[in-house]
Amino acid sequence: MRISTAQYYEITAANYQRNFNKAIATSNEASSLIRINTAADDPIGAGRLLQLGQQSAALDQYGTNITNTRNALTLQETTLNSIGTALQRAKELALAASNGVKTDADRKAYASELGQIQQQVLGLMNSKDANGNYLFSGSKTDTVPYSQNSDGSFTYNGDQTNINLGIGDSMSVATNTTGWDAFQQTINTSRTQTTMTAPAVDDGRVVLSNGTVGASSTYNAKFAGGQPYTVNFLSSTQLQITDALGNDVTAEASQNGLISNANGANQTVSFRGVDLKLNINLKTGDTNPDAVIAGHSFTLSATPDSFSTSRSPGNTSTSVITGSSVTNQTNYDNAFPAGGAILKFTSATNFDLYAAPITADSRPVSSGTVVAGNATAAGVTFALGGGAPATGDQFLIQSNNHQTQNVLDTLGQMVTALNTPIDGNPVAKQQFLGAIETGLGNIDSATNQIGSAITSIGTRGQSLDEQSATNESLSLGNATSQSSIRDSDPAEVMTRLTLQQTMLQAAQLAFSKISQLGLFNKI
């Protein structure tokens, strides 16, 4: 095959240009020691680098998430520890105030300090982070967790939602601690109540406290099913307990109902998980203790559900709910929304009760008409005051079954007890001691609940540490893999560059020699 001179020059120039470009690329690679700059350099390697780059970016974000979560959990733990310290001081005050030598004036001073502790605890529960978000509101970070109601009780306004943040592939942790978990699930030890039924006028000789739940498992398994109970004093040394059906269940009481008639004795009667404080107060002239104590009787039952109500800000009338109570237990148990309800008026006299919150497809669970100023829905009667409701008025209703109680309410009840005069009144003093005992039990429950929340934070912190170490190992492996694909071997690159440069020099030399082999050079 013959090749013309023009073709030879074109082919030689093209080959030289191609080899020159390779030499330039190798020179650049030698300078940067990066083998893949574009996908054309190594399509498979470039695709793998893209995947590794995405993993690296994710690992970097996981690292940021871990740092942010660790900072958030540290702030929550510090706040919870501060609340625990405040509650310990409250417990010390309550114990000191219940000392028998303290006076009403002393107890008022303790009440003042305990009220300050309550406000301190409220402030800590409503703490914010550096971004202005509430720590304990769940996902409602712009909503204040706790607010005080008109009756002095406190309501939790947050939710139970955990805000989860990814810290690794298929791994996430909750960055927040909800007020529901830390404070609202505190076991309430004062879930029972006693009411004297005989004599008609309390003579002060027998004082039986409302009781505290000492064994929750026994209480839950046995107490509720038999209430209300009747506690009859057969003599000054023996009591009898019968259940709602009239069955004698005294055998389940401590010492089979045997009590002491020692004057002013502070003794404990335990029954189906409930501990009752009993005082026998014999008076001067009571020569026959059995005669004056026999015939005293009390009812013992679980504290009935109560309700907190609030007006909707959009209400146009001045109507308010002044009171509420369960009037039909069966309807209440079957129909009243456990998560809260909304009473909505469709006219001045007609109303519907909805499960909260109301949505476009909500249907009322109960409807009715106001009778004698009362609205009865789902077994609950609400007393209305302040004028007739207007069409569209809404009232938010939250039920409280007293199984749990936040510590703010406990502190408030203890402040009330400390402010109540008892000097010179042994019966009032015994009732005061019962209230303080209940408060101390609830403070212990609150402390335990806070401790559980701190333990949860510690567990999540440990997970962060372990995942952080895992992510660091993955990051190192990722960097190594990227380097092995992307980076060049210096020795190989320099050898290749030297070879390519030598080939260019040889091509130049060959071209100059061949170009001189013309026919005219032989004449």
Automatic annotation (TrEMBL):
InterPro entries: Flagell_FlgL, Flagellin, Flagellin_C, Flagellin_N. It comes from the Bacteria. Residues 304-324, 461-488 are annotated as: Disordered. Gene3D superfamilies: f41 fragment of flagellin, N-terminal domain. Residues 304-313, 461-485 have a biased composition (Polar residues). Belongs to the bacterial flagellin family. Residues 440-517 form the Flagellin C-terminal domain. This is Flagellar hook-associated protein 3 FlgL. NCBIfam families: flagell_flgL, PRK12717.1. Keywords: Bacterial flagellum, Cell projection, Cilium, Flagellum, Secreted. GO terms for molecular function: structural molecule activity. GO terms for biological process: bacterial-type flagellum-dependent cell motility. Residues 314-324 have a biased composition (Low complexity). It is found in: Bacterial flagellum; Secreted. Residues 3-141 form the Flagellin N-terminal domain. One of its GO terms (cellular component) is bacterial-type flagellum hook.
